[in-house]
Amino acid sequence: MSTSQDRADTPEDTAAGTGGDTAAATATAAGPAGAGEPLLEVDNLGKHFPVTQGIVFKRQIGAVKAVDGVSFSVRKGETLGLVGESGCGKTTTGRMIMRLLDSSFGKITFEGRDITGLSQGQMRPLRRDLQMIFQDPYSSLNPRQTVGAIIGAAFKLQGETPQQGTRAAVQELLQLVGLSPEHYNRYPHEFSGGQRQRIGIARTLALKPKLIVADEPVSALDVSVQAQVVNLLEDLQDELGLTYVVIAHDLSVVRHISDRVAVMYLGKIVEVGDRNDLYAKPMHPYTNALLSAVPIPDPAQRAGRERIRLQGDVPSPLDPPPACRFHTRCWKAQDICKQVEPPLVELSPGHQAACHFPENTTVSQTDLVAKAAVSPGASADGAADAPQAQE
Amino acid sequence: MKLLEVRDLRVAFPTADGVVRAVRGVSFSVEAGRTLGIVGESGSGKSVSTQTLMGLTPGAQVSGEAWFDGQDLLAMPERQMRRVRGAQIGMIFQDPLSSLHPHYKVGWQIVEMIREHEPDTGKAAARKRAVEMLGLVGIPQPDRRVDDYPHQFSGGMRQRAMIAMALALHPKLIIADEPTTALDATVQMQILDLMRRLQREFDTALIMITHDLGVIADMADDVLVMYGGREAEVAGRRTLYYRPHHPYTVGLLESVPSAPGVGGRLKPIPGQPPSLINLPSGCVFHPRCEYVMERCRVDEPPLREVVATEPAPGEEPAGALPGGDLPRVDLRRDGTHRSACWLPHTAVGLDAGVAAARRAASEAADAGAGAAEDADGAEPEGGER
To answer: Which GO terms describe its biological process (chain B) (predicted)?
Structure first.
């Protein structure tokens, strides 16, 4: 905790804070135009895992800054996709929203209520509204319980008896996710990966949640089965008016399922935007690189497109690069990127990016520099030699 | 000259629940400097077939032939196999953390392999080569990192170290089993670039096993699609992507979310992959196939040549890509495109016209029109995309 306090005093963190405020403000502003009011709001949320040394007297020698101040909001009925490479903090963010992990700083508001500080006991009634789908359908189901017991546990834990009885309710859920009611007494090992994922989804839906956080819901499944589960998730959303936060590393799945997409890099959100906007006109160089790295299953398109090759690996979150975290791998990096952290600002309606030299935008460099609240005559020539759009 | 030729490979594992027939008569070959992509879902037998070639499936009942450089790998005694494995055939596995020994330094593991196969090499010389290889695969400061342990490497670096190890003895063939599945997209691209570059440099033959059709489109010259332990379809890369014949290949291509029509519903293949203990009768794909005919439930289709409506030599194939440029699909009538399906061999491609032709052919066959070949009259349009 001490680190977060210390960090809050540093100028760059305040900059991130303002960025977060802008983000929240714009999201609310866009609210009436969008689907509905925000169901979930996350403001400058962070998680630092302490790294300690010593056996008896543990001294903290550092912190893994897994998530370092992210802000976003999710409106009712929409799907927000959270993408990024491994170690970017997307799963940690999902777990903090679910309150499976305590946050180091920041605020989570669910239906207008601050749930950040709630105790386990206070959280329990809220659990029916907030549910999670896990990545691994093999380890997330208890192998010694029947499917009926696994799904029925949700009712039991909430002390609720469905009108038609638990058994009938579970069987209805099984049908809802495309399994058959006869599966009630079977054990998880009797099912394939795709079917197990359906069981996990049925359990999630038991209490009619409002928000579902799906952490890599299809990455463990085969391609042909993956499409079945993606379709199921979409159908359920239409039918039950669900709101999703989908966490995934597969950009094509995220593109398919999300309304809006947030791209994370090393614990920060670098770009948020409407799905089509973000994929067609990525502003942040990292988004651009990430999109161009996705192998397209089409030899002709592959030959035609230009690719951005990033050098090296993602830096360690134990000691992230200062200012813009992407500058060590960015081909557009200038001195300012090493000194001033770019805030997440709205560059076109509903599309925010945190970059000093964004692409696909008409916002002039001087405006951005002004927004970044820096005085030095920052190099405005950076945008001139910006590579053109990839698509 | 074929470097590796596998004929009628069969692999079965006796288990308490019955015999798992993992591979049921697969044949393929690869030439020097070429890449063969093997695609399939889990349980299709793609990994088992290549592991069997390397003698890495103990307890399996194996039959068939695998001629590598004039020797049958499957008939080779273990001692001789040890000299081939690693030195002449390199392997890259999916999970680099579990395939490197956590207790030994990365450099030591490469040195050990070099000295095992070339006992004359001195320690210092082997170490120098290990450093060289690590540098070649793009590990920064290889002279320092050579003394690191695997846990000190990132996922991408470990996979690079695996590639360095696989290449250290300049093998003629590299078998890469899902080499980038565990990696992030940006690192995956680096690794694929690296493999392509090294392949050109050393004229290595490469067998690339993956479930990712995007990776295959990037890497492979020829593609083998496996389903239920057998070949479903074999074709050149472009032919497979633009003029697929087997409904399973079509289904795979259509179920990828990045396919055209973003935002619409995905088109999954219904059902689940088959159990390898109780295989479906006839064509193993028939329970999931939308064009299933009576014949498919009884007879297992052999791998037959596909000869589609062929343009005259030099003529461009009909139909254009959305971008306006023509796909240069080579329509060779040389037996390179083969498919194990009873549908008429003219029904190739992905568009709606072909789907209708497939359906018509399947209905005609069920209506008692006789053998599926008779349905060839249901001519598909040439408008492949």
So the answer is: peptide transport
